[in-house]
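User: Need the bound-state model for 2P0:
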Amino acid sequence: MYTGKARAYTNIALIKYWGKKDEQLILPMNNSLSLTLDAFYTETSVAFNENLTEDQFFLDGMIQESKQTKKVTAFLDLIRQTYQVELFAKVDSQNFVPTAAGLASSASGLAALAGACAQALNLNLTDTDLSRLARRGSGSACRSIFGGFSEWQKGSSDQTSFARSIDANGWEDELAMLFVLVDDGVKDISSRDGMRRTVETSSFYSGWLDSIDADLRTAKQAIAEKDFIKLGEVTEANGLRMHGTTLGAVPPFTYWSPESLKVMQLVRDIRKNGLPCYFTMDAGPNVKILVEKKHLTALKHFLAEYFSSEQLISAYAGPGITLLSMEGSENS
Ligand code: 2P0
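Assistant: Bound-state model below.
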C-alpha cells in the first residue's frame, strides 16, 4: 500500500482562464493570474491499495457517486499510466470552507490530490512538476501549488504549461477578498462545459483572446508597483469580459443571478463613496470583492445592510501546497 496526504488552498483568478486549446492535456487558450487564499482549502489523503477492485472517493466522509468522481478517477488513471502503478486507490478529501456554500473548488481539490499522489508514490517533484501534474486534474489547480500571486503560463505542450509564483514583495499580505455568497445551489453549467461551449460557439470569444495580453501586462505592472486601483480595475474589467463571452455563445448562457448584479452595483456605489474595491466572478453567481485589508471592515459594514454575516466571508492571501504525513503533521 502507498499512502500520501496534502493540503492545498483555493485560488481566485484576477485574470481568468477561459477556454482550452487541448481538452485532453488541459492546455489553456490564455495565460491567467490568480491569488491563492487562506479561507478555503482541501486536505486529501490517497491510499493505493492491493485489496481494492475500483477507486473510491470520499468527500467530507461521504462516498461519492461516479458523476462526482469523474475528475478524480481520470486523474488517478493518469497517475497509474504515467508512473506504472496498477493499484486502485481510496481518496479521502475534506473541504474546509466556512459554510456549505457551494464554494468547494476543483482548484484546491485537484491540487491536493496531485500532492497526495506525489507523496504516496515518492515522486520527489519540484513545484513546477507538481503544477504541471495538478493541471491535468483541473486547469486552475496548477495555480494552487503556489501561495500569493501566481501566473499560469499557457505554454504549448504538456511540458511547457504550468504556473509559477509571482513575487509581490509581500504586497499580497495587504490585500483581502470578500466573498458575497448569493446562492449555494449546484451550477447549471460546469465551468468545463461553459468554457467549451464558449470556445466553440461564441462570436465574442476572439475579443476575449485579443484583450488578454494587455490585461496580463497591466495586472503584472500593478503588482510590481503595488498599485491597488490599477489591479482592481483590470480585475473587474477582465472578469466582465469573460462573462461577456458567454452571452455570445450558442445557446447563450450566463452565470449571473439578479443578486450578483445587485452586488456589482453595490460595489460601484461603494467605490463612488471613496472606498476602492472591485468585483470578480467565476462560473457561478457568487461575487468576490478585491479590497485592501485596511478597508475590509468598512466594506463589510456597508454590505451588512444587505447581506447576513454568513453570506460575507473574508479571505486573505494563502500559502502554497503542503505535503502532510498521514497523521496530519507537515513534512515540507
Ligand atoms: C479561473 N475558472 O481562471 C476560471 C475563471 C472559472 C472561471 O478555472 O476544466 O475547474 O477542470 O480545467 O479549472 C474553473 O475551471 O476547469 C476555472 P477545468 P476548472 O479560475
